[in-house]
Amino acid sequence: MARILQTPAGALGTALVALVAIAALFAPWIAPYDPDQLAVLDRFAGLSPAHWLGTDQLGRDLLSRLLHGATVAMAVSASAIAIALVAGTLLGVAAAALGGWGERAILVLFDIVAAFPSLVLALAVVAVFGPGNGHLVGIVAITLVPQFGRVARAQVLTLQSLPFLEAERILGASPWRILRYHLLPNIAGPLIVLASMEVPSVITIEAGLSFIGLGVRPPLASWGTLIYDGYSYLSDSTLPVLVSSLALALATLGFTLFGEALRDAADPRAR
Amino acid sequence: MTGLGVRFLLGRLLQTVLVVLGAMALLFALTVIVPGDPAAALLGPQASPQYAKQFVAEMGLDQPIPVRFVRFFGHVLTGDLGTDVVSGRKVSAAISAVLPYTVTLTAAAIGLAVLLGVPLGCWAATRPGSWVDNILAGISVALIAIPSFVVAILLLLVFSVWLDWLPVLGTGRGDGVGEAARRLVLPAVALAVGWIGFIARLVRTAMLEVLAEPYIRTARAYGLPSLDIVFKYALRNAAIPPLAILGLGIGRLLGGAVLVEIVFGRPGLGRLVLDAINVRNYPVLQGAVLVVVLLFVAANLLVDILYSAIDPRIRRG
Q1: CA-to-CA distance for B63 and B252, rounded, in angstroms?
Q2: Which end of chain B is more exposed for a tag (fewer CB within 10 A), N or C?
């Protein structure tokens, strides 16, 4: 952790991530207003002590909506990445363990899913199942599985040839014991780094889908929803679209810087 | 080309065919598991039962799933992507009408990114650790991190709304090449900025490694001009690792193009897919997504061929 903070980029990333995390966890207590409270007379208010970041087309407080948007972004990212991490690791380890046709089949499956640009696959699935908060998490998770699976498989293959695992096998350790005590702890590092590097792309996909109305459902409002609202009323006021775009940009920048610092700290050679 | 080269390319080709067939099967599966009665969903509640029945027969939806599957494959192989259920047009016609816009946009973005990203990466690599390098590194990561549709909105805000320099929406079709080019600027830049940073970083890393090679030292000892060394001798080798990674980045670029097109109100695959989703026009959706997948897969195959042409060692891998 200390090594992440050593570079200016790592420190900035950590600060931005901490800011988003605090907003996500404590939005209901920090937010000055109810994010859905209408005040039509106050619509498109500018920056003021009452509304630090102004109000939107229905007079809702933008700062409060952005803080609650952080909760949505973090909830979607955390659950989608957790699902993809578990499913990808299982498939990747299975591929390495099976070898032969089983391994080839799993790899081709990864290639097929990866042949769809993430956002396009998400669009195709949303079109069939309809938009929905649960669907959204599932879709994003599917697009991430191949990446986790490939890394898990490659890690296991590297480890398998190392002498300490051979020694364990000769000593009669069961495959389950090897998996539980030797493989999983050793492949966890790279997978966690990958998980942190995927956060910005998940936030981007979620916001992108919400921007075109196919992401989270109302009354939940993600940053993508806020950007869309601002974009639709661009001719009335440029403030809402500006602040919500900047919030999303700062969040993805923060998570990118943090993920890269984490990667560099975990493996200094990767720089 | 040697036997090894042919084998490498044949192997890649086989893998590509397998992936495309798999992607088609996945797309087909999506339309089979669509919840509810597809005819009711497509025609709406007002359609008469007779018409709904006739429609189902016309679309072949009353056939068993394996028959529909084989039929879908056969049609796609002959370039027939089905019929647009809303307008009655051929899906292939609907797609080829908008495809040039998407291809122009992505090609312009890639061109712009290479033109700016490669020299910036080389520049940074010749001065590692200097303020130029540090500033470029910071800008690169910021450009990579910010989603392209957000960049698109910010560009639109600054250059079209506040400064009023460039036109906002549409393609300027019919107003001549100049106007079309003017309207391409902002979307292409929005899509390119992330790639500029991406390419600059990849080139910088690869270039640093190549510049440490003995043959570069020899070239310097001979007194060759620094620019010649970087661009004539080092770049050829430094271009290889970035090229391999660029193929994968094209997926993100195509996804970004979908949203950027929507932000700028340009016709293209993005608009087509979104409209198809909104009216549950599955044949158009299926066709458009398949075309995007084909573009992505073809781009990756092309990258691999280029890659093995530049570096013969890869063919043995």
Answers
A1: 37
A2: C
Alpha carbon of B313: minimum distance to chain A alpha carbons (Å): 22
Q: In 10 A of CB B257, how many CB atoms?
A: 31
Residue B12: the pLDDT is: 81
In 3D space, the residue among B55, B9, B3 whose CA is nearest the CA of residue B309 turns out to be B9
d(CA A158, CA A161): 6
Tokens of B249: 């980045």
A233-239 contacts at long range (C-beta below 8 A, 24 or more positions apart): A233/A44, A233/A56, A233/A57, A234/B157, A234/B161, A236/A44, A236/A57, A237/A44, A237/A54, A238/B157, A238/B161, A238/B162, A239/A44, A239/A46, A239/A47, A239/A53, A239/A54, A239/A62
Cα–Cα distance, A146 to A154 (Å, whole number): 12
Residue among A117, A234, A252 whose CB faces B251 most closely: A117
Contact A252 B18 (CB under 8 A): no
> Quick check: A127 and B297 CB within 8 A?
no
Cβ separation A241–B153 shorter than 8 A: yes
A133 band by pLDDT with thresholds 50, 70 and 90: confident
Q: Please check whether residue A208 touches B, CB under 8 A.
A: yes
What does the alpha-carbon distance between residue B228 and residue B108 come to, in Å, rounded to a whole number? 27
- Give me the residue label for tokens 């008469």: B48
Instruction: Write out the two tokens for A80.
Output: 């989608």
pLDDT of A234 > 60? The answer is yes
Residue B19 Cα, gap to closest chain A Cα (Å): 5
The residue of A66, A101, A212 whose CB has the most chain B CBs within 10 angstroms, and thus the best one to mutate to test that interface, is: A212
Q: What is the mean pLDDT of chain A?
A: 83
> How confident is the model at residue A90, as a pLDDT?
92
pLDDT of residue B317: 43
Side-chain-side CA neighbours of B296 within 13 Å: the count stands at 30
pLDDT of residue A23: 82
- Tell me how crowded residue A118 is: count the other CB atoms within 10 A of its CB: 24
pLDDT for A271: 45
Nearest in space to B210 (alpha carbons), one of B230, B188, B196, B224: B230
Q: How many CB atoms lie within 10 A of CB A60?
A: 24
- What per-residue string of b and e applies to A158-177 under the rule 16 or more CB within 10 Å gives b? ebeeeeebeeeeeeebeeee
Query: Per the CB < 8 Å rule, is B259 touching A119?
Result: yes
Partners of A245 on chain B (C-beta within 8 Å) are: 150, 153-154, 157
CA of B145 to nearest chain A CA: how many angstroms apart?
5
Cβ distance of B259 and A208 shorter than 8 Å: yes
Q: Is A115 on the interface with B (CB under 8 A)?
A: yes
- B252–A118 C-beta distance less than 8 A: yes
| Distance in Å, alpha carbon of B188 to nearest chain A alpha carbon | 18
Contact B296/A117, CB-based, under 8 Å?
yes
